[in-house]
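R.M. (postdoc): so does anyone remember the format we settled on? I'll just put the structure tokens first.
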């Protein structure tokens, strides 16, 4: 059996953490569960990351980076309405194929609020920084129009909420969204 390098183990921890935090949130997920999923001891886990917060922030950063990559690849060479629909379609495909990415996003927002309430402003700053990179990624293809970017991001958050709550694709709540932001034919419930 080939031994993994520390970097490969670190990658395994991030992937496992994304999945575990998506389901259990920051406070509901133990580092023991993450370590067990990866097949390492907790002491080894803490050699790779200084603590649970660092693991969560690494998972959150990866989630944001994957979403940024999705939007950037989808909108490459496009602008305006074409970019908007390409990014929306690509995002809907991602959350259909990798629902944990959507759930982790939702957990990130809840974790920021909880951390802020506890006086931890570093936590929120890191997540907000990622969100602003996401904003900037869609802003240019949408013509650097603040209103268009705001609308796109608002639709995205609505989609996140509707999917997280389990509204089926044929439900009337989807009717007001532009076609590329609808789940019809994408999500299985």
């Amino acid at each position: 059996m080939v031994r993994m390098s520390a970097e490969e183990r670190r990658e395994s921890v991030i992937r496992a953490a994304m999945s575990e935090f998506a389901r259990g949130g920051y406070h509901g997920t133990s580092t023991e569960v993450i370590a067990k999923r990866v097949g390492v001891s907790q002491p080894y886990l803490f050699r790779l990351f200084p603590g649970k917060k660092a693991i969560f922030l690494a998972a959150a950063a990866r989630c944001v980076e994957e979403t940024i990559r999705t939007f950037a690849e989808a909108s490459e060479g496009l602008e305006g309405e074409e970019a908007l629909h390409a990014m929306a379609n690509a995002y809907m495909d991602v959350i259909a194929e990798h629902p944990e990415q959507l759930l982790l996003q939702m957990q990130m927002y809840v974790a920021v609020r909880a951390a802020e309430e506890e006086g931890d402003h570093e936590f929120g700053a890191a997540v907000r920084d990622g969100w602003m990179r996401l904003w900037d990624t869609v802003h240019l293809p949408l013509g650097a129009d603040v209103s268009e970017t705001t609308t796109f991001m608002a639709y995205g958050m609505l989609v996140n909420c509707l999917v997280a709550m389990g509204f089926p694709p044929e439900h009337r709540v989807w009717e007001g969204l532009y076609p590329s932001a609808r789940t019809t034919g994408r999500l299985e419930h």
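R.M.: ...and that's the designed sequence above, right after the tokens. Also worth knowing: The mean pLDDT is 90. DSSP finds eight helices and no strands in the chain.
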